[in-house]
């Protein structure tokens, strides 16, 4: 993958130089770089992102806790009341001598509790609950946030007659205006209700006859509260019971059933469970008696009908057996079918082996071409060699495979004309001919076996021709006979069981644990809700950190830079925040003892180590795109070198967007472009700076063909002239991610320098630099991390403690907030959220 990407990048550069296409853009370079494999988990970057996301994590945790509190505040608690019942079956059948027989023959023992569950959740129980507990009317009082049901403690009761069905399940508001009067209001489906009436007065309203009476819970506080009630129809009450009533088998061995009911009102849940126990106790005995009698009548009727059916089926089947002399056609058909499947499976395996032998024969016949032109053995060409059942052929193929590996090993050391290679070729030819002979013999054997299988299959087909009709007739007669026998036997057994049960079994019912009023709600559980809220906040915080880490695609510190490239890291230039600069300019002469000057001096020292053997040096400075501080580093590095006593000249080769003249506060009337077209000489274009040993040549007017000018012989002549007068030539080249001019200069440079800006340059730019190094063999490529925060990247490796702000410079490529000041709280929060 990397080779293809390098070739593509090189083709783009070559086409741009030749004028065939436009130069590669930053998007093209970045997209090619993004295709390279990731370097893995960067712990330092992860720690940086985690630190910046810490406040977000705390806020999300607080948000999760707040959400849990709000959920608990505005969610009604649900209570659950439970009772435990034991259902005993005391059998007295032993009195008539059938105790052991009943115990062994009762088929209902395992499903009896399931029947009890269905009885409890039946209409029989629901009807008793509706009538005895007055579940048709619900009374509520409105609280600050939630409403509460006043089950059993309502200060009033209503007697009603619903004439308009639209009023069912509707909320009807009621307020007490005095100890003896109340007002009622309702607006919804059906007729509207509104008015003020006396307590105990029979009121006839549209669709509703109503009478409101006070209860013993009526008091002074009742006059200030807001109430409402709903009248529910039978279907709604049944749905309510079905939803909240749970009946489960607690222990099948102990014959225990657990009855539970959930509701927002704990007292209501308790009373419903206790009422279920009472109603079930009465209904159980009645149900047993009625079911037994009804079942016996039904069994007698069905036994009479099934006896006639069984007799007719037996007579028909007996006639078939006497006529055909056949007792089990199905077993014979199954045996023949199994044998046919076995023959077909054998034939399929033989055909597969035949195809495999053909493939081996073809590969062997082409083996001379394969051996000499491909690094692939016959074992690699045919993965199914292990399935061959011929031991002789397998041994020959194994020998051939070993010879191929030996031939490949010898061919790397000898030519085809050597004796060793000739001997190996002769051995391989002999082995190939032996394999072909063995394949021919194996193929004949397989064809003989296939023919034998075909003859056996023909015999089976002849036997099977007469069986289907007899099998169909026998199966047709056996079905009604088996059905009639099973049904008759089952009915007889049921009748015996029910007679014994009716004569010798009585029901015994016990409430082991009656229902009690629950004190603690089952939902929501405060601890679990808070845990879920905090866990959700933590999960979102960690997810945010992970997303920010995955989206973090810029270089932050030298550790990331050194980890991402093989280029030497010359040093780190800290953020310059003393003043705001509209354009890059020379600052080391104004602040020779500042942190930025010391950092560039360290870079100068590292450059001396790299090129200590050369007195004359050509240094190129480039970056991927505009805005990474290339010009700033160029002029200030040139200034530091010049301050050490060396004569330095800066060339601005960024002829499309020149900035060196702006850095020195000079004009750009003439320069490199006019020198390369022989309009001006080198001496005429040299401009002086505030440092005596530092001079520069601006880019000059923008030409239409900068790349061709750099490739011209005049460029080499200009460098030769500069070498005569200067010790160091520093070239400010265009960004290599935008145009190809910089690549041409980097090839000529003694030290090509690649500028990377902290928190600005993408990681894809480093991959672009690595491709340039590989493609152009730039073994002396160096890099500088620019605009690094002192606390992070600058302190790493240099130890300076200067506390500059977060200002930037550039395009002056960067925007700067101004002189260093103490950061405000808003700025600190902004850095955490960055």
TrEMBL record:
Gene3D superfamilies: P-loop containing nucleotide triphosphate hydrolases
InterPro entries according to UniProt: AAA_dom, Bact_polysacc_biosynth/exp, GNVR, P-loop_NTPase, Wzc-like_C
GO CC field: plasma membrane
Domain Tyrosine-protein kinase G-rich: start-end pairs: 476-549
Pfam families per the UniProt record, alphabetical: AAA_31, GNVR
Keyword terms, alphabetized: ATP-binding, Kinase, Membrane, Nucleotide-binding, Transferase, Transmembrane, Transmembrane helix, Tyrosine-protein kinase
Keyword Nucleotide-binding: yes
GO molecular function: ATP binding; identical protein binding; non-membrane spanning protein tyrosine kinase activity
Presence of keyword Cell inner membrane: no
Class of this enzyme: transferase
EC code: 2.7.10.2
Secretion signal, residue range per the UniProt entry: none
Reactions mediated catalytically: L-tyrosyl-[protein] + ATP = O-phospho-L-tyrosyl-[protein] + ADP + H(+)
PANTHER family xrefs: FERRIC ENTEROBACTIN TRANSPORT PROTEIN FEPE, TYROSINE-PROTEIN KINASE
NCBIfam families, per the entry: eps_fam (TIGR01007)
Family statement drawn from the similarity comment of this UniProt entry: Belongs to the etk/wzc family.
Protein name: non-specific protein-tyrosine kinase
The organism's taxonomic lineage, starting at the top: Bacteria, Pseudomonadati, Bacteroidota, Cytophagia, Cytophagales
